[in-house]
Design a protein that fits this description.
Elements: E1 2-6, E2 13-18, H1 25-32, E3 40-46, H2 50-63, E4 67-73, H3 82-94, E5 102-107, H4 109-121, E6 127-132, H5 135-141, E7 146-151, E8 154-161, E9 166-170, H6 179-196, H7 198-212, H8 216-236, H9 251-261, H10 268-285, H11 291-303, H12 316-323, E10 336-341, E11 344-348, H13 353-362
Helix pairs in contact: 3-4, 5-6, 5-8, 6-7, 6-10, 7-8, 9-10, 9-12, 10-11, 10-13
């Protein structure tokens, strides 16, 4: 078992990583230890995850003396919207939950983002705990306090920075994860190596097969390294005014793909993978990385069964329209996270449309 702390002064919180943690009430007990004897807890999940894990979780919470309710939401990125957000608000209001309620997000990135935002908004903020069940949410979206819902005009455009009280990661959840979802999470794992840790990237090249075989030690090592990197970055830059932007490698292009194709058609990690290739190609064209470094990035994403190509149905203007709505745009200027080597990256604001077009079109012939 690994334990990492996100250091944010009085808002610091633990990340626990191990196999079988959902079956051990001790981890929930530690988080709820300062609550009432009959603590009210709302578990929010989706129709895919709840049948797998909610029953067991509810029994664990009840064994701790909690009064527990379950809300099941529809599954999919297309449901991360204000309509479903309002369903959550209605459930909480009709249940007359006070500010001392604890909300648990049980699911992947969509549930974590939506439930986190609802927790930030309900009565101006109530405690919530992340129990991420997908690889992508375990290594990325459950950590750091970014919460949001989508709008038809842009991904994650309505949200708040709101930190959880704890993140509990049970690697056994990955045994029920479809391979496509697992691969989508690997895209974010690879991202950490590209932007921050060359040795970790080397390790991934050597151990990718172990991860896909669900080797417990390899999974815990990879998840812990990703969480440690993110915890370090968030502690330095919680509100993404500096170094935290580097965690968005591939996301400017990727969010454009998700919005352009319709939320849910490509998984987030799939779009990030294709976007990472585009960002790396921009770096290559600008001389920030070598041909060999670019090829290593493409090769590991391809080995991970991730898309490295540009969607045929999106033209250059489609990309630019959506990319200019990116949250990193300042004063009308597009800012991209670009790798400057294996293990380093920076934000660049002066990429020409010609270079962007070359990078996007590269993926049509790959």
């Amino acid at each position: 078992m690994e334990r990492i702390t996100v250091n944010l002064a009085e808002r610091s919180y633990p990340i626990s990583i191990g196999a079988g943690l959902f079956e051990d009430p001790a981890y929930l007990s530690q988080v709820l230890s300062n609550k009432n004897a009959k603590q009210k807890v709302v578990v929010i999940s989706n129709v895919t995850v709840a049948p797998l894990y909610a029953d067991k979780l509810l029994k664990q919470l009840e064994s701790l003396g909690c009064s527990v309710s379950l809300l099941e939401l529809p599954d999919g990125e297309q449901y991360k919207n204000l309509d479903v957000f309002n369903q959550v608000m209605k459930f909480l209001l009709e249940g007359n939950y006070a500010r001392d309620v604890v909300i648990i997000a049980l699911g992947g990135g969509v549930i974590g983002d939506l439930v986190g935002f609802a927790s930030a908004c309900y009565q101006r903020g109530v405690d919530f705990i992340q129990l991420p069940t997908t690889l992508l949410s375990q290594v990325d979206s459950s950590v750091g306090g970014k919460t949001a819902v989508n709008h038809p005009l842009g991904k994650n455009m309505i949200g708040a920075f709101y930190q959880p009280k704890a993140v509990i990661i049970d690697t056994n959840c990955l045994t029920t994860l479809p391979e496509r979802e697992f691969a989508a999470g690997i895209a974010e794992v690879i991202k950490y190596g590209i932007i921050y840790d060359a040795a970790f990237f080397d390790w991934l090249e050597e151990n990718l097969d172990r991860l896909y075989a669900l080797d417990e030690a390899a999974l815990i090592h990879a998840i812990a390294r990703c969480c440690a990197i993110k915890a370090e970055v968030v502690a330095q830059d919680e509100k993404e005014s500096g170094i935290r932007a580097l965690l968005n490698l591939g996301h400017t292009f990727g969010h454009a793909i998700e919005a352009g194709l319709g939320y849910g058609n490509w998984l987030h990690g799939e779009a990030v993978s294709a976007g990472t290739v585009m960002a790396a190609k921009v770096s290559h064209l600008r001389g920030l990385i070598s041909e060999e470094q670019f090829e290593r990035i493409v090769a590991i994403l391809r080995r991970a069964n991730l898309p490295v190509y540009t969607p045929d149905s999106m033209n250059f203007d489609d990309f630019i329209k959506h990319m200019m709505r990116d949250k990193k745009v300042l004063s009308g200027q597009l800012r991209l996270v670009l790798p400057t080597g294996i293990g380093s990256a920076r934000v660049v604001a002066d990429t020409t449309h010609d270079v962007l077009k070359q990078a996007i079109d590269f993926g049509r012939d790959i």
